[in-house]
Every structure is written in structure tokens, then in C-alpha cells.
Design goal:
Radius of gyration: 16 Å
Strand content: 15-25%
Number of helices: 7
Order of helices and strands: EHEHEHEEEEHEHEEEHEEH
Shape: globular
Length: about 200
């Protein structure tokens, strides 16, 4: 059964949503990290086709939980472990917002999820972030180093690229899972959604 992923306190929602914004802005400024050690890439549309053609294929989302809450979730996602997380315990006066920090337990959490699902070392593993820029590729490398031999980075991510002109210039409405007519929802499978509690259980 699909249920909405909710954060109980409204103040916490606002704080964390605002916290997600800086890291996404930093993605825009950062040098693209699209290259992976394996050199395996798929578009969102190709990822969906691969999942339809191979029932062993696994889709992993590495975005921040609140980012997912407000932009949506790809149906068929098997694993959700964030690469970075909003740190609402500190406020960065220089940037004027909350920092995003690396999920230091990413390796252990992703490994536990892969093992729990019985993912074989040669099964297709597809890693997706927002735009395929700074999170899916390094996460794919981590998974590859665990011995998985067919790990793909989704080059256009969940939200895709920005419109270059027009009234909606700058809006992410080009390609990506959400803009390619692929199945997605704001409802998140409770068995897949990452929380600090289930992350601790997985370690």
C-alpha cells in the first residue's frame, strides 16, 4: 500500500525544505560529476525500459527525503538512501541557510538495502538523483566498489534540465523521469522511504 511520506511538525517541514535549497543551488555551481568509474549511463526513459525488460533491475533514489516529498518519487523505486541530508541543527550565516552534509552512513545503509533485497552482483543497479549531476554518479561509484558490476547513473535524473527561455525559463521541465511521461507520484512507499530510524536498523 502506498502512503504519503509525512513529517509531523509543520515548522520542521518549512525548515528542512529551506535547507534543501542551498545544496541544489550548489549543484548548479559545482563542476558536473557525471562520469562514473564504470562509464555506464542511462536516461530516465532508458532506465524505465531497462526495468521493464529486466525484472532484476533495481532503482535507487539518492535524494534528500524532503526534496522527494515536494517534487515526487518514481514509481518502482526499490531503495531510497540519501547521499546528502539537510542539517537543520546549524544555520550557516554566510550562505544564509542551513548546510547540506554528506550522509556518512551512506555506504553501510546502501549495502544493507542491497543485501536485504537479494541484489546479485551482476544485476542492473540504476542510481538517480535530481539531475544526474553531483549525487548519482559518485553514489554509483560507491556501489560499484562494493562489487556490483552493472551500475548506471541516470543522466537527466528525476527532475531533468531547465527550460532555456520563455515565461518558465529556469523551470526543470526538460527530460528527467518526471517530464518523460514515466510513472511517478507524491505518495511514497513506506517500505522504501528512508528515515533515520530504519537507517539505523539497516546498519
Amino acid at each position: 500500500m502506498r502512503r504519503s511520506f509525512l513529517i509531523p511538525a509543520a515548522a520542521s517541514i518549512l525548515a528542512v525544505v529551506l535547507a534543501v535549497t542551498p545544496v541544489l543551488a550548489e549543484e548548479e555551481k559545482a563542476a558536473s560529476y557525471r562520469e562514473t568509474e564504470l562509464g555506464l549511463y542511462v536516461s530516465a526513459a532508458e532506465a524505465h525500459t531497462l526495468m521493464q525488460d529486466n525484472q532484476r533491475a533495481v532503482l535507487i533514489d539518492v535524494r534528500d527525503p524532503v526534496e522527494i516529498k515536494f517534487t515526487g518519487f518514481a514509481e518502482g523505486t526499490d531503495i531510497h538512501v540519501p547521499w546528502v541530508l539537510a542539517d537543520i541543527s546549524h544555520f550557516d550565516e554566510e550562505s544564509g541557510s542551513w548546510p547540506m552534509v554528506k550522509n556518512t552512513d551512506f555506504d553501510a545503509q546502501i549495502k544493507a538495502k542491497l543485501v536485504a533485497l537479494g541484489v546479485a552482483k551482476d544485476d542492473p543497479v540504476i542510481v538517480m538523483c535530481r539531475s544526474g549531476s553531483t549525487r548519482s554518479a559518485p553514489a554509483a561509484d560507491v556501489i560499484h566498489r562494493m562489487g556490483y558490476s552493472e551500475v548506471y547513473s541516470v543522466t537527466d535524473g528525476f527532475e531533468g534540465g531547465k527550460l532555456k527561455d520563455g515565461d518558465s525559463e529556469g523551470v526543470r521541465a526538460v527530460n528527467g523521469w518526471r517530464n518523460s511521461g514515466l510513472p511517478w507520484s507524491y505518495s511514497i512507499d513506506a517500505d522504501v522511504a528512508w528515515t533515520p530510524e530504519n537507517a539505523e536498523q539497516a546498519e
